Please model this.
Amino acid sequence: MRDRIQTVLRQLAQAPELEVRWLHTLSLLEFIGARKISRTVADRHPSLEVLGHLADETRHAFTFKRLACEVAGREDVTEFLSVGAASEWFQSLDRQLAEWVTGITGTTDVYLHYLLTTAVVERRAMVLYPLYKAATRHAVVREELGRVVVEEQSHRRAIEDACQQRLEKAGVTLEPALALEERLFETFLTQLEKDVAQACVHSSPSLTRLEWNAMGEEESIVLPKEDFDRVAEALEAPPKPTNALSELSRRRHQGRS
Model:
């Protein structure tokens, strides 16, 4: 799966409009995480550790939103990339992890649920963010991703250790939770791959013959209407050759005669 993630991140990083949407989606995911913290273990004045985690998640949501605006060159970014699949991955993971751990312990432990979801999501972030940092062509994005990774790592280890200790008391490990996340993320990744591939085809209609051969199938190229009209006009009324081209043609003709 790592190779698939790396490939799709490299693809979307080649298209600024896709990267804007991707950054905005990352902002949303960080915001969902912050909101879940604030509604559970931070619904009252929390501990310093939880408050610090909440501050990090909120800051990361802001950072990715700001980066989306910087890459787009505007402040009114509203579009996302595979947002339904992204939200479903997080929401389904949170819900199913809660059901799993409640079934194991026999009790509803909000703090353990928080530790478990955080530990699993942070594991995914530590794969996703470094790969995206390597893929993006924007120096400011790489710089901010470096900061985000450092901040994620600062609390990930302590939270994961605390989660492991509580799970061990219940006679289980973190592995089933990680396997669940892997299955759910694969669904998100598949949708992301489809959306990126579709966007790339639409934004680059004139694929080369080599690219078509690499796809392993013959297909006709369908131009968007505006591109078709432009090409049709050029074919019906081609522009006159430039002076330089006319002179070059005259010299070649004289050389042959």
